[in-house]
Amino acid sequence: MKTMLTCAAVAALLATVGPASAQSPAPASYKATRDFSYNNPGGVWSYGYGTAGDKASFVRYPAGLISAANGLLDSFYDGESSVSVNATGAVALHDPGSSKVVIPTDALVMHPRLDGQETMVVFTAPAHSFYRMEGFFEILDNAPTSVAPRIVIGTKDQTRKAFGEKQTVVLSGAADPAALKPGEKKSFSFTRELSKNQRVQFALNPNGHWRFDSTGFDVTITPVASK
Questions:
Q1: What pLDDT score does 18 carry?
Q2: Does 62 reside within a domain?
Q3: DSSP 140-181
Q4: Is the dihedral of CA 84, 89, 90, 93 positive or negative?
Q5: Dist. CA 121–CA 44, nearest whole Å
Q6: Comparing 142 with 79, which gets the higher pLDDT?
Q7: What is the CATH number of the domain that holds 209?
Q8: What start and end residues bound the annotated signal peptide (predicted)?
Q9: Which pick of 8, 118, 185, 220 has the fewest CB atoms within 10 Å?
Q10: DSSP letter assigned to residue 42
Q11: Is 1 inside any structural domain?
Q12: Residue 17 falls within a domain, yes or no?
């Protein structure tokens, strides 16, 4: 004799199993430091160098992270430029002798290249939407030679609009190693409509001399309904 399931039992069973095509919801926001990936690319983020706005010039760093700054950093590094994350969980100080670098926990550490090319953290939009982008760049070295952060969407430079400035955005104020405090900091905030797979390049230009240019960076990117 066959056992018949009641409608209530069937409903309960389906609720337990759930639809076969169910997917994990998209995150409420994307955050460069929190989401730093030990793969390259990793999710919506990729790390490399080149000239922001020139997609053909972009070169990804080798996929494997290396330990740097006496174990204080985990880095994507090619011998000159880098994108790194604090590996200790606490604010640290790197003192190689030539200068001192504050290593924060709330920012990635970026360093540009000798040949003037920019080191970059690139966000690739996972879906068509408006995105709110809020973040900062800050000097980490106590002997900075100045840097010029850049924000480029596709081929369009959005730096001045994002920072609310009329001139080239430049940072040069030194960090305070004794207090473990970063130096000059400039914040940006803007909203843009992005197509799926459109790239936002957060770049660090050496603004001339490339040494002593360690710079902190973070951004939070949140999908929003509209501007």
A1: 40
A2: yes
A3: -BSS---BEEEEEETTEE-HHHHHT-SS---B-PPPBGGGTB
A4: negative
A5: 10
A6: 142
A7: 2.60.120
A8: 1-22
A9: 8
A10: B
A11: no
A12: no
Residue 19 in domain: no
| pLDDT at 1 (0 to 100) | 38
Q: Contact 108/65 with Cβ under 8 angstroms?
A: no
Copy the structure tokens of residue 37. Answer: 């990936």
Please give the Cα distance from 106 to 102 (Å, whole number).
12
| Total domain count, the chain | 1
User: What domain range is 80 assigned to?
Assistant: 25-224
Task: Please tell me whether the overall predicted TM-score, pTM, comes out greater than 0.85 for this model.
Answer: yes
What does the pLDDT average to over 155-159? 98
d(CA 29, CA 220): 7
**Does the CA dihedral 117-201-44-32 come out positive or negative?**
positive
Is the pLDDT higher at 29 or at 63? 29
Residues 60 and 209: their CA atoms lie apart, in Å, by 23
**Residue 115: Cβ-neighbour burial (10 angstroms; 0-12, 13-18, 19+):** exposed
Half-sphere exposure at residue 20, Cβ-oriented, CA atoms within 13 angstroms: 0
- CA–CA dist 3, 48 (Å, integer): 62
Smallest CA-to-CA distance from 212 within 167, 168, 173 is with: 173
Residue 127 DSSP label: S
Mean pLDDT of 9-33: 56
